Amino acid sequence: QIFQPLHTLRSAEKELLPGFHQFEWQPALKNVSSSWDVGIIDGLSGWTSSIDDVPAETIGRRFRYDVALVSALKDLEEDIMDGLRERGLDDSACTSGFTVVVKESCDGMGDVSEKHGSGPAVPEKAVRFSFTIMSINIRFDEEEDAVTIFQEQKPNSELSCRPLCLMFVDESDHETLTGILGPVVAERKAMLESRLILTIGGMQRSFRFFFRGTGYDEKMVRELEGLEASGSTYVCTLCDSTRAEASENMVLHSITRSHSENLERYEIWRTNPFSESADELRDRVKGVSAKPFMETQPTLD
């Protein structure tokens, strides 16, 4: 070891650090840095070498999404191996076919301003984006049903919920939220089209990820989907009901909103191709007022 060049010693040293995990994506993630020893990222401007050199004007800190997921899976390594054993599966045969369901949550944290003391002046509001690994399944081939080898017992607990991004921003500031969470969404989209190769239980195994945005409250869903706020005439985040229609008909609702449709409506709102008045235009786009930036599946938590 002693006479090796410095960079090999450095990388050998890194592998001994807690929280360091080597992993690979196949195919490689699009639009995401290929370096896997990433720590914490400055929310807006990309990479910083360590958390201590925070410029005072930093308004967000986050982990890279795939690095955080790898860390979460490594934390569950024993549970995964126990799950395989309990199902009577030979762990050496289970190297691929793993699927991981991830619940995403995002909410405002209210007023966090410093009331006294000499810290940096910060905006009063903060928002936290986090995720929970809900379940891990394995399927051997297409015909068979998936076997669940891990299920989170307390999915709404603080202990299973992992922070990904903390930002000083009001949750109704659509532009700043888009600026900070836009890259998170890009990373998530890239992960959907690839699979993670990670060593679990001494063997390389491959994982696919599915994301469910069921941890958002109504205010945040409206924000992420570019809808008018909760005082809007268009009361529903899943369809085009007005308050009057919804009060007459509490039963027969169909889910009609989709992310792509909201994007089209935003373009109509922005360009006003039919030269309509403000009221006519608003009636046409049914309460879409900003460009949606995060897809939220219409599911109940």
Automatic annotation (TrEMBL):
Sections of the chain in a coiled coil: none
Residue ranges occupied by any V(D)J recombination-activating protein 1 DNA-binding domain in the UniProt entry: 1-23
PANTHER family recorded: V(D)J RECOMBINATION-ACTIVATING PROTEIN 1, VDJ RECOMBINATION ACTIVATING PROTEIN 1 RAG1
Family annotation (Pfam families): RAG1_DNA-bd, RAG1_pre-RNase_H, RAG1_RNase_H, RAG1_ZnC2
Domain of life: Eukaryota
Protein's UniProt name: RAG-1
V(D)J recombination-activating protein 1 pre-RNase H domain location: 24-96
GO CC, one annotated term: DNA recombinase complex
Domain V(D)J recombination-activating protein 1 RNase H: 100-232
Single Gene Ontology MF annotation: sequence-specific DNA binding
All copies of domain V(D)J recombination-activating protein 1 ZnC2, residue ranges: 234-296
GO annotation, biological process: adaptive immune response; B cell differentiation; chromatin organization; T cell differentiation in thymus; V(D)J recombination
InterPro entries per UniProt: RAG1, RAG1_DNA-bd, RAG1_pre-RNase_H, RAG1_RNase_H, RAG1_ZnC2
